[in-house]
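User: Fold this one for me? It's Cytochrome ubiquinol oxidase subunit I.
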Amino acid sequence: MELDIVDLSRLQFAMTALYHFLFVPLTLGLSILLATMETVYVMTGREIWKRMVKFWGTLFGINFVLGVATGLTMEFQFGMNWAYFSQYVGDVFGAPLAIEGLMAFFLEATFVGLFFFGWDKLSRRGHLAATWMVAIGTNFSALWILIANGWMQHPVGAVFNPDTMRMEVSSFFDVLFNPVAQAKFVHTVSAGYVTAAMFMLGISAWYMLQGRHLQIAKRSMAIASAFGFASALSVVVLGDESGYEANLNQKMKLATIEAMWDTEPAPASFNLIALPDMAKRENVFAIEVPYVMGLIATRSLDTVIPGIKELVEHSKDRIRQGAVAWDALQKIRANPEAVGEDVRETFRQNADSLGYGYLLLPYTDTPKEATEEQIDAAAWSTVPEVLPMFYAFRIMVACGFFFILMTTVFFYYSSSGQLDVLRQKRRWLLHIAVWSIPLPWLACEMGWFVAEYGRQPWIIESMLPTSAAVSSLTVTEVLLTLAGFVALYSTLLVVEITLMIKYIKIGPDDGEAEEVPPLAAARTVPGAMTMPAE
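Assistant: Here's what I get for Cytochrome ubiquinol oxidase subunit I.
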């Protein structure tokens, strides 16, 4: 198979991004849980809550450090692998990424230090303030990254300058309050909260199965189940908002998620299960639920959702306009001072479709002279592979509803004071909680796959194709850096897992005797006296 610089650069960024996001969700969620638990400690003065904060804070610290380490290289990749993209969007990305750097390295790092080393140097309220600043800084750091990413999904508040060949900010307010970015932020942060809640729930369940650290495990399970239940519901609601925004701004992404090849009468049906065939451009098999897709994506009964084939035909018109814009742009670049106003006017009239003109470059050096076959090929290149998009989305959604079920069950047992029943009669639920620990990460990675792969072939939706954004590197150079990143990140992942397991096995400082030894717990009968431990 011939190696392609674009695909290799995409693979490298995908690998580093997916590795990095193994650490981000847990950091987002644990920071809020730590602040909540320490608030309870300050309000009640009960030392057990302080011990809980210190234990879960240790796991947070391990994850936080490795998250920062893996995140540093991602911004450098913009200059290394995506030089033209960096030039193209520097005016837009400069402010959000700079603010994110301030949030991450000044706000977070400063208060993380106070969190770990300030227990004996700060008052209770002072330390609590530092903990909340860690939580706020962590979440606001994610906000600025997602504003930048949301702009790539839905570029607003900026215009293309043909003389500088850059996007230039026309309204920072529009960039900041981009509806796609805001929807992505709240959805992503809520997913992080669910990740932390399921992590805490699973570790607490493991302690209960072991009969260790029961007082801390029960309290951790109670707060994790309540926090996780609210967060899981939020993820579903906010995910619906993201789907609605996709229907407004990224129709091809939505059509591929649903494997909707043909436009259906409103309201469209939902494909529960399907077997999409890209070669035949149809679903070989599908189980449909009538009306559901139309109601979810449009929130109406009469709004039509265009199918893939209709969107491809629409792309052909945009490609023809883009070819005209591309031709005018070449004339402007060749002689910007002498070019006539008629050429600039032609460019302005077709500038919105310039990105579609770039889609022809893999097929011809002169887009304005492209044949119908070349236009057809370019138009179909706007369709991501349907099968992985279809099932990645459904894996994510299935996990989301499973999290709602799990947190509901454990919230019921914790709120009704029946957690001991789990240890005695429902141990299988505790086992499920332990084995469910990896699922939030699977859901998060599937969500990012849908978001990023579903945008292809665009690095900036409808404006700049990924193929036009890469640096002038050789295949060997990218392969070497890809191998280096994979080796480094894999090592960091092993370090993370090893340290996590080590400190989970050590467990928290109980500060008191165990409530019930495992053997005695196994022989406890509700309503009867507990037999003494042997």
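One thing worth pointing out: The first strand starts at residue 158 and ends at 161.
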